[in-house]
């Protein structure tokens, strides 16, 4: 845990008592803050009470008495409308921040020279965060990894001069971190996402830019127009910028977990970041070769049927699915779920790679119309299990090469699953059950 000693003696309201919210309360209490924690869920409040954490009904609180309101990242700050705690805090002139901001203030207070890598982007940020952390560990560094991936940032060990924090940041978290100032800030790419939370693409991009605006070194992708414009602005503001691209040459032949052009972008960003932290190229490439990859992100599931099974459940939007489709030539594609704006029209150039599509979830009928309009064979199967069975039969029958069954849904998971992880586990279970 990182005790928030920089908040000692301050009165802090905390709203949102999921995993990161509870971690925030523990950190603030350990640092000596006077905390009132609350949630709209009675069960969440009861869980905090059972742990002995300080709770109170913020609906009845006088917000002017607080120094800060700390929001969990999932709580609406601006769109579709501000949460009631936000309105109360703004009316009282109380700052509204999140756990990333608390970490940044604590780092400046106790170890201002500690290395801190913050990573964002619409796609690839989890893989790149894990890759950077892995390479640094393999090179002998003391690494703490977390944030939007795995462990809440305040559950990590505190900053120190011999330790590097590698932290994935979502746009929700950045929006609550006004003084975010990493040693190395990474902005991989931008495409339309989370507009229900940020209103417009321009606002979404502006929020992402905050992560790199105050960084010592900004590593920025140049594979989309928003990122290119961002890099230009940063340079004009005097920020040290290293631009990277998926087109930059890099040898990933020994890194099986980094297949695909999109992973070339991730790898080049990781290389630039590790160079900025003092690693040699040979140290970085050695780390790439031993990187195991992340579950549900272009993850290969080993089987003995001669088919390559790829679990890409993390592909919750079209841009992610495009990267997956671009990585293979002969694809039996399982897709669908809760659709996002625009459907799969943007993937039409990749349809010639698709042998057959297997549709699940709410998007099935709409996606079937798009596929049929471009002469792609399809079948509506409804569930992951049925889709896996059908794809297996077709792929095994087509063993005139190395067929790939690609589970890259291009959709959110919330129609049938709690999250993409649960969806990916359902796919993995179904694939492994084929051999039983």
From TrEMBL:
GO terms for biological process: cell division; cell wall organization; peptidoglycan biosynthetic process; regulation of cell shape. GO terms for molecular function: ATP binding; tetrahydrofolylpolyglutamate synthase activity; UDP-N-acetylmuramoylalanine-D-glutamate ligase activity. The keyword Cell cycle applies. Pfam families: Mur_ligase_C, Mur_ligase_M, MurD-like_N. It comes from Hansschlegelia zhihuaiae. The keyword Ligase applies. One of its GO terms (cellular component) is cytoplasm. It is found in: Cytoplasm. Its EC number is 6.3.2.9. Keywords: ATP-binding, Cell cycle, Cell division, Cell shape, Cell wall biogenesis/degradation, Cytoplasm, Ligase, Nucleotide-binding, Peptidoglycan synthesis. This is UDP-N-acetylmuramoylalanine--D-glutamate ligase. Belongs to the MurCDEF family. ATP binds at residues 121-127. Cell wall formation. Catalyzes the addition of glutamate to the nucleotide precursor UDP-N-acetylmuramoyl-L-alanine (UMA). Pathway: Cell wall biogenesis; peptidoglycan biosynthesis. It catalyses: UDP-N-acetyl-alpha-D-muramoyl-L-alanine + D-glutamate + ATP = UDP-N-acetyl-alpha-D-muramoyl-L-alanyl-D-glutamate + ADP + phosphate + H(+). Residues 119-258 form the Mur ligase central domain. It is an enzyme of class 6 (ligase). Residues 296-411 form the Mur ligase C-terminal domain. HAMAP family: MurD (MF_00639). Transmembrane segments: none annotated.
